Amino acid sequence: MQVVEILWGGSPDAPLLRLPVLGRTPSIAQVSSPNFQPGPSPVLQKLTFAAPAGLGLNRAVRVLQYLRSTQLRDSDIVATPLQGSEAFVSYADP
Question: Is the previous residue joined to 26 through a cis bond, with omega within 30 degrees of 0?
Fold first, then answer.
């Protein structure tokens, strides 16, 4: 079984925060089904999460997908380079 996490911040934004995924498309039930057909590659996924209160623009965001049995240290995650401007959150203040 795979785990998907949203990781907010990290160096130089320390600390790294692990945020729960509130919604996921395709759902875990769909992906876990033996009848699941992922379709064209890459498979588009949608993740919904709540940003931490009080943190604003230009914070690093990482989507981490790994096997449940894998142990990942925050230092290993932060050491992985971000993938350009797509790795930062920006938004319009409502």
Answer: yes
Cα distance between residue 17 and residue 6, in whole Å: 8
3-state secondary structure of 74: helix
Reduced 3-state DSSP string for 15-59 = CEEEECCCEEECCHHHHHCCCCCCCCCCCCCEEECCCCCCCCCCE
Q: Would you say 38 and 92 are in contact if contact means Cβ atoms under 8 Å apart? A: no
Could you tell me how many helices (H) and strands (E) the chain has, helices first? 2, 6
Q: What is the pLDDT of residues 60-70, one digit of tens each?
A: 788 888 887 88
Residue 75 CB neighbours (<10 A): 10
C-alpha of 10 from chain center: 13
Q: Comparing C-alpha atoms, which of 77, 55, 60 is closest to residue 12?
A: 60
Q: What is the pTM of this model?
A: 0.64
